[in-house]
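Hey Z.,

So I finally got round to the FE2/S2 (inorganic) cluster thing we talked about over coffee. Here's the setup:
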Amino acid sequence: MNDGFLRNAWYVIAWDHEIPADGLFARTVLGEPVLVYRTADGGLTALADRCCHRLAPLSAGRKEGDAVRCGYHGLKYGPDGRCIEVPGQDRVPPRARVRRYPLALKNRWVFVWMGDPERADPALLPDNFSCDHADWCYLPGYMHYQVPWLLIADNLLDFSHLSYVHDKTFGGTPEIARAQPLITEIERGLRIAREVRNVPPSPYYQSFRPFDTPINRWIVYDFVLPATLLMHSGGRPAADADDDLRRAVQLHSCQALTPETATSTHYFFQESHRADQGDAQTRQRIFDSLLTAFEEDRQMITAQARNLALDPAAPMLPLAMDAALVRFRRLLQQQLQAEAAAGAAGAAGAA
Ligand code: FES
Ligand SMILES: [Fe+2]
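And the result:
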């Protein structure tokens, strides 16, 4: 399927807490409706949210123990996706089943594997450690975007926008846009590092501690396929040595984009502070700041998407600041081609 989505990859479908203890949860991923629910053994199962009878969403039905019953004409499915009961007939046709997706839970993120189940590899799960770590605290965030996911990835791959989109929140200084990021290739992605020295503390950092001097800031993040950002960032008084973190603000952020459809995207995010730096109020303040700043992004990117939709062929002007997003798009293309080639080889082998 060539719709620009990498299928052999883990996608975040939900925060762990979004899946009810005894109910059904549904979200569309890569254009496919997916149902997630908990089983009695404490596990989770992910099935196509589309009854094989007449395609009604199973999430509109009800959970019965570890099974789910379609709310339209009552077909009942086990957690492996096999239909186990058809009202009004004794025999269940062997084809009566829905797809089951490989699923993984790691550090509070629930991931689904949208491609070949044989290739679902837990080693490919991102290291979102600060989502579940005693040394780090945060509040979980989710936002829905009515734009294609790659436009949001572009935004996350180029932090020069911090100086402008977020000049009153994260950014606070034009120095971030001026600082050239160091971009290096890593396994399935890019590492992007930026450092700005001797800049005024942004309102965001001021909210952690009242810096009364300029600060040195660092932003180092990995952006890995399919679309996960894992970032260490922080700031310390400019007079302090680089390895002296006693007066530093230290943050770690995990963010993931999951395409919902070709033109809409789920955005999961958090930013953790060190457990010994701040309390519940700090946590709430960070969360509120993220919501404010990410709403700034959403407005800009949504307006950009509107322009793109009006004239999809309008040329763009490549600039130095686009280096990371150009490289990431190249990486994605390579992976998509590899996936298409593997799919074609698989199809030929099966023929
Ligand atoms: S659509 Fe599900 S039972 Fe008919
Ligand atoms: Fe932003």
